[in-house]
Amino acid sequence: MPHRTMGTIELRGLAAHIRGGVVIQSVDRAVRVLTALQGSRRMALSELAAALGLPASTVHGIVKTLVGHGMVVQERGSSRYMLGPRVLLLGNVYLDTLELRSRTAPWAGELARRTGFAVRTGVLLVDEVVIIHHEPRPDGSRQMPEVGIVIPAHASALGKAIAAFSAEAQKTVGEAAPLRSMTGETLTDLAALEAQWDDTAATGVASEAEEAVLGECALASPIFDAFDGVVGAIAVVVPATAWPVEAPVREALRETARAISRELGAPAWPGPRAV
Question: Which one of 91, 115, 146 terminates a domain?
Fold first, then answer.
């Protein structure tokens, strides 16, 4: 499956933040170890050392410390390591502190009922979108929970909706070029993506058709706060068999994003374009 799972807390953004300020070497290395384990799930000390470009003895000391704090555990019956239960605890605390998530939940439920589609709320983290709330389709079918899933911003309607109103997001995505292709439909041409950002800024709605996952399409609208900043986006997830959607679905999405933004104190919707 092309989506990554955040493991309930994304660590790569923290590493980038640390490197952007004063680097505390030991903290930076610990975050790099956690990030490597997030991407590979299970790794031996030698694999971690090779991935990080550090001596095995150094990595061993870092891992031993992380194990002591429950951030890393050794896989039973092997010499490989993986993320520990405290990462889950930190992720849950993070989600519980998000005002956007608590504000979105009731509106997402109503949007799912109005449209018949699943609804996602996401926030941008570096050049990816993290799903912080998931409202399943209201048809009673068995569905996997999606909170914590991570999708490349350029390949998701959520990411496009946010980037259309964030110069920083556009810069970050642009610096990631060449953009990764998730499916044969993924838009990887930066100029074409910029044209979509312009269209989204004008309409308040972004779209993607099977760019991240085959068989899945989406529409998304941005959410703003009291400072006129884009803080996330909300999307309806549409099966390819039901794409394109009718105008009432698009309007219901816009109304929902506008209502959530109003609750967060946004003076207008949509907010100002990225400059």
Answer: 91
